[in-house]
Design a protein that fits this description.
Blueprint (H helix, E strand, L loop, with lengths): L1 H20 L3 H14 L6 H17 L4 H11 L4 H9 L1
Helix pairs in contact: 1-2, 1-3, 1-5, 2-3, 3-4, 4-5
Length: 90
């Protein structure tokens, strides 16, 4: 069960990052909340903070700053999500 929940958490984290890449702050927040909820090992707590910051920037400024993209990268480093952040960063 734990392994299945962790895979679901990873999938939700991926959806959060993809949502940020397409400029959808609401979907990003919902997905990262799911990631944190299903996360059994605490892998996504830093990501949640970075996603919420990025979503707020999208809503208020219409874009995500370079420093926030850097925080997103740091939040998933090291790991498989680094390449995803870099690919949606543009």
């Amino acid at each position: 069960m734990e392994g299945r929940l962790q895979r679901q958490a990873l999938s939700a984290a991926e959806r959060a990052i993809e949502a940020l890449g397409r400029g959808d702050p609401g979907a990003a927040r919902m997905a990262v909340a799911t990631a944190v909820e299903r996360d059994q090992i605490g892998a996504f707590s830093r990501l949640a903070d970075a996603v919420y910051l990025a979503a707020s920037e999208l809503e208020h400024e219409g874009r995500i700053s370079e420093s926030t993209w850097d925080q997103l990268t740091d939040a998933v480093s090291p790991g498989p999500l680094v390449a995803l952040v870099e690919s949606v960063r543009g």
